[in-house]
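[stage:ingest] chain + small molecule (alpha-D-glucopyranose)
[stage:ingest] validated
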Amino acid sequence: MRVIHLASEVAPFCKTGGLGDVVGALPAALAAADDVQVTTFLPLHRTVREWLGTRDADVRDTGLRVAVPLGGGRITARLLELAPSGGPRTIFVDIPSFFDRPGLYGHGDDGLRYGAFCRAVLLGATPLLGEPPDLVHAHDWQTALAPVYLEARRPPALARTRSVLTIHNLAYQGVMPADLMPLLDLDEGLIRFDIMEFHGGVSFLKGGIVACDAVTTVSPSYASEILTPAFGCHLDAHLRAHAGKLEGIINGLDVLEWDPATQPALPAHFSAGDLAGKAVCRSAVLEEMGLADDPDSPVLGVVSRFTGQKGLDLVCDVIPALVRRGARLLVLGTGEPALEGRFASLAARHPRQVALRVGFDGGLAHRIVAGSDLFLVPSRFEPCGLTQMQAMRYGAVPIVHAVGGLRDTVADPGDERLMQGQGQGFRFEHATAQGLMWAADRALARWRHDRQGWARLVAAVMSQDLSWSRPARAYLDLYRRVLAGS
Ligand code: ADP
Ligand code: GLC
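[stage:predict] done
[stage:export] tokens:
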């Protein structure tokens, strides 16, 4: 089976969140699980070019040039390839006028940029692979036009090619002005309420949902939630109309990267059977972030994009209470200035117990997670969430709002059973400061007063199989069903 993945971000080349992690890891897991040839396409963003340059990566020009119909003319895309390392192939689509720019998103012409990327991949895939792909797997709105082009402008070679679209976050839909359609070489007939029209514009994601053969999202709970007005981001009725081809597949974790026994960014290593290194990591990251070491004061970690989705205003609300209870907080994130400001003033008010780093720093993310006893993920909605899994893998017990993928990955059977090593963490049902504090108080009491039970819980969460092997099998099963036309 020949499968191509298209995404706007792919770790380690570029990443702003979990999408990059997923598309960085899933292709290799698919290829390992079965006789599947996987090729991943991503735009040659300036940051990708810089990443490749600083590592002196072996990238070759495939010699393939794709003429992409756009704006009534054509633009040229070059296909570059990372030197094969035995795993899936990685192809960089080089359209300098669109992608040799700072940042990945937020440019006024994002619709044209990602539309051109999708078209270039569909036109270039067959010459590149030597044979047409059987399946096109697109991720999020940036590549949702791939299934649309496959239906509306199907290259003859792709007559039998089918498509899957994964929604990593319905809050981002790629809503563009409707007058973009002719520039994208798409018929205005697609601007219909049941196809792409969205409040007078066009929605790439909406169109992708109609055009693809199967829609997935990244947890079973989120797959149900997005069919309701509360979580549907104004697409719930549209999704209900296509619910027959929607399913949820929980993400895996890149367990080679998130391995506390080997991760190079950590000052010491540890495992479920030997936690001595975790204590070293804890002291080191407290020092790195300017807090004193104190074995009797629990360390709570937060690593997150600072957006409304993540419920971090609730963390800010409860920081004074957590500080009164003697806890310390390590916070890493960047995003909305109002949240950055709130965390900064809380850190200034409680300099001995709250430390903040504003920015995106992969190494520090590893060190904070490894050094934390507890990890906070109070998201208002969460399609899957990877940080709670990263926390579990590093022996930091998660405290989560029971929503989406957080509900599916963190079972909370109650304090007694948690202390016997059953379940994964502390959940709260209502996204309020009281809800979060109720769960935090349960966790802090157990951490302080039942160290043996706590050790059983930590060993249990660290020993789970969080790898991609199970999700990869679920995707392969889906691919087979799609290709069989059922
Ligand atoms: P989302 O994709 O909604 O941001 P996920 O939990 O799926 O949420 O994935 C977030 C990913 O980004 C995780 O790998 C997390 O460790 C990482 N991350 C988030 N914020 C930062 C940051 N400030 N610095 C480094 N890594 C971060
Ligand atoms: C999105 C979601 C997050 C998910 C990630 C990877 O960014 O917000 O919940 O884990 O995609 O699928």
